[in-house]
Specification:
It is built from 15 helices and 16 strands. The protein is an alpha+beta fold and about 475 residues long. It has 4 domains: about 130 residues; about 50 residues, SH3 type barrels, CATH 2.30.30; about 80 residues, 2-Layer Sandwich (Alpha-Beta Plaits), CATH 3.30.70; about 170 residues, Jelly Rolls (Sandwich), CATH 2.60.120. The strands form 4 sheets. It has a 5-stranded antiparallel beta sheet with strand order 4-3-2-1-5. A 4-stranded antiparallel beta sheet has the order 9-16-11-14. Helix 1 packs antiparallel against helix 2, helix 7 crosses helix 8 and helix 10 crosses helix 11. It is elongated, with a radius of gyration of 39 Å. About 5% of the residues have low confidence.
Length: about 475
């Protein structure tokens, strides 16, 4: 404890000692103070000295309490600020005792009368303020236990979750994620079930639960759900998702998609990303969560369900938006399904190619080789994504390696299937070149973060892409 803490005791100790000396002199030897026994000033001065002695003593005792509480607070295994609420109450008790001492020993009041009167008054006030007193003493207990601190996210009751912004004698003030202030009595927190989402660490694991039909094999269901959750790691890399089968029921098999969130404030955003990724993966796989059957479907939804997974992939891919529905249906018939095991390298950077891949199920990782030849992960792909489009349109070697993070189902479309349509409708080449240039600009923005560690080929605009595409497919230059 620093010397400054002890110096704070010096002044009240000196005042108390001086007052006691004066009081003793006036009581035992008033002549030494220049006052005769019959002097009319003797009584008032002696009373003032006695009152000063008691008040200075209470002042010294309150500072001593502060000093002791600080020493106890820093001596624990987890040093923390000492409980101000307890300190205030103890100081108040010290001064109340000093007031009683003044009445009894300075003004010669009867102690029994004071005690009786005080007891009745305390009983009446205690009954009237029983809830306030309960909250105050609960606040003292919470100050000792430290179940939460300023800045923690806690749930003091069902449906009430907020960030602690203030702890007072009676209440704890929270602010929810919606910016709403909630004031909770300390008595309610001390006697109920408290959940602290920030202790022992801000990150914690939660889960998304949904049911799939029993006809879906558990192995496939887990792969699809995990791939969807992995897609969310593009935004939140620390999710570390996994999938467990929980139970079987009338609705099918319930699965828990578990994932970690960095802190409670981001839990909603992480849950949204995981839910969106899972639903997208299920949709690409031609599945949906088990729900009660409906007697009819809207026209748009029934039409979407009537499409094959291959047609859905092409329809929802911006790169093929310029193609008509009939052309996309023809292309869908020529898609070749490929299945790869977890850990397999689907394509390798630098190898020659002339096809594009669509991800139907599973998750994959995009890896680029750095200057030392080491492959570094730069992106992830999930159901609905595609890769290899530049190889399809221009015949360029693969620009990255793609590795399966789970078992994956892919569709492959080769150059020979696209050539008849481009020959018949040359204007499709212009649309493809424009869309491809936009995708390249988006991809370049993502790669800028890795520019110091990797060497990237400069991206071309729509003109060069269109020229290379025409040469690759043997199409005439329209000028």
């Amino acid at each position: 404890m620093p010397a400054s803490a002890y110096r704070r005791l010096a002044l009240p100790a000196a005042v108390a000692l001086a007052a006691v000396v004066v009081d003793l002199l006036l009581r035992r030897a008033p002549g030494l103070a220049g006052l005769g026994p019959e002097n009319f000033l003797l009584g008032p001065i002696r009373d003032v000295a006695g009152v000063a002695a008691w008040i200075a003593g209470a002042w010294f005792a309150s500072r001593l309490v502060d000093l002791l509480l600080r020493r106890v607070a820093v001596a624990g295994t987890q040093p923390a600020a000492y409980p101000r609420l307890l300190s205030d109450l103890m100081r108040g008790a010290v001064f109340i005792l000093a007031a009683i001492g003044i009445l009894v020993f300075v003004f010669d009041q009867e102690a029994t009368g004071l005690i009786a009167t005080s007891s009745v008054l305390i009983a009446v006030m205690g009954f009237a303020l029983r809830y306030v007193i309960s909250d105050v003493f609960s606040g003292i207990a919470l100050s000792f236990d430290h179940p939460y601190r300023i800045g923690d996210w806690i749930e003091p009751g069902p449906g009430v979750v907020g960030k602690v912004v203030e702890i007072t004698w009676r209440t704890t003030r929270l602010v929810t994620r919606d910016g709403v202030a909630v004031v909770v009595p300390n008595g309610l927190i001390a006697t109920g079930r408290l959940v602290n989402y920030s202790d022992p660490a801000p990150s914690f694991r939660t889960a998304l639960r949904l049911s799939l039909g029993a006809e879906v094999a558990p192995t496939r269901a887990k792969q699809i759900l995990l791939a969807g959750a992995l897609a969310a790691t593009r935004l939140y890399p620390e999710l570390r998702p996994d999938v467990l089968a929980q139970e079987c029921g009338e609705a099918g098999v319930t699965y828990a998609v578990r994932f970690w969130v960095p802190d409670f404030e981001q839990e909603n955003a992480c849950r949204d990303a995981v839910t969106s990724g899972v639903l997208q993966a299920l949709r690409r796989a031609g599945l949906s969560p088990a729900v009660p059957r409906r007697e009819f479907l809207p026209h748009e939804e029934s039409a979407a369900l009537a499409r094959t997974p291959a047609e859905s992939l092409l329809t929802d891919t911006a790169l093929f938006s310029a193609f008509s529905a009939e052309e996309r249906a023809v292309l869908a018939e020529h898609l070749v399904e490929r299945r790869m095991k977890q850990g397999a390298t689907v394509v390798r950077q630098g190898e020659p190619a002339s096809s594009v891949f669509f991800v139907r199920e599973g998750a994959l990782e995009v890896r680029l080789a750095n200057a030392n030849g080491e492959e570094v992960a730069v992106n992830r792909l999930a159901a609905g994504d595609l890769f290899g489009e530049m190889s399809l349109l221009t015949g360029e070697p693969r620009s990255a390696s793609i590795v399966a993070l789970t078992d994956v189902a892919l569709y492959e479309l080769g150059k020979e299937r696209l050539l008849p349509m481009l020959t018949e409708r040359p204007e499709l080449g212009d649309a493809l070149a424009d869309l491809m240039a936009a995708r390249q600009r988006w991809g370049q923005a993502r790669m800028d973060a890795f520019a110091d560690a990797h060497q990237f080929e400069p991206r071309s605009g729509p003109g060069p892409i269109l020229s290379r595409m025409r040469r690759f497919f043997g199409l005439p230059d329209l000028g």
